[in-house]
Design goal:
206 residues, alpha+beta, OB fold (Dihydrolipoamide Acetyltransferase, E2P), five-stranded mixed sheet, 6 helices
Amino acid sequence: MFVSSEDLKTLQRDAFTAIQQLVAQSPSVAASLQMQLAQGQLAGNNALNNGAPQVVGEHHLVFSLADRELAVKAELVQNVERLMELTPVPNVVPWVRGVINMRGSIASVVDLRMFLDLEHLPYTPRTRLLSLQYNEMVICFVVDGVSEMLPIPPTAIIRGNVRQAPIPAWAIPYSTGSALLANRSVVLLDVAQLLFSDKMQRYSVL
């Protein structure tokens, strides 16, 4: 859906509000997101600079994993942090890297690459802890990087047809579809399916 130019100021205000809601709980990512918005890198601001129609959609946080872009709904993101010291936990599977004190709450940390049986690579300065909350469950995922907040219109989403939606095999069990945006494809992660999957629930080493 496209909106006329008189609605652009409202869209900009909504974009700022969405970012503020996220960064209010994630000070470490605030400067990056605000800089992107100021430079017109976040979707929703380019149209204000060049007068192009603005695409409207639900905001998602985009992150990278194994050279692919994935996204989760912004409302499910609790925090984005730099990788920090973790407390190891005995008798758990290798993809559970430990636990972390996240502002007074203890959360498990899962290496998403290892969970999805991808090649485990050394962490870099771009590595991030992405904390997601669904209902009462909170968990942190180690991802390759977090890039931007992006509104994704319903018309850009392909669901249920793997041939049309370019989703890598390792992401299919945990995705709701793929968003085709200009020259990029973003896999939409099903957070509930991921958090409550049998594999995620059975992390103890017998």
